[in-house]
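S.,

Sequence below, as promised.
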Amino acid sequence: MTDIQMPKGDTFTFDVFVTRVNEVTGVEEIVPLSGARAWFTAKKISTDSDANAIIAKDSVTDPSDVVITGVEGKVRITIVPSDTVSYPDKYLEYDVQVKEVDGTVTTVQKGRLELGKNITVSTA
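The prediction came back faster than expected:
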């Protein structure tokens, strides 16, 4: 589990590196993600349906907010102000899932997204 803290209504970007232990060598290696698809989903509670997610983004529908760098095995997620500014609660549960070209689906990170208060309110 990886918890994330961010100010509510801010832009926040984080990277997830996808690795897997090589069954032959026993060494952890970067998973090449060329041609893969990735999702970021944040919900009030994990049992909510995907349709009721507070934030739902993927690399196909939201390619500027969910960016895959295939060779590096990296997924970069950007949460924009409109994703959180009007959300009344402080916590969300989230995960990042990847579907590789061969159909393998893996939850590569999950945890709690804590939305803190801003100190500065004016941005003019």
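The longest helix spans residues 81-84.

Coffee later?
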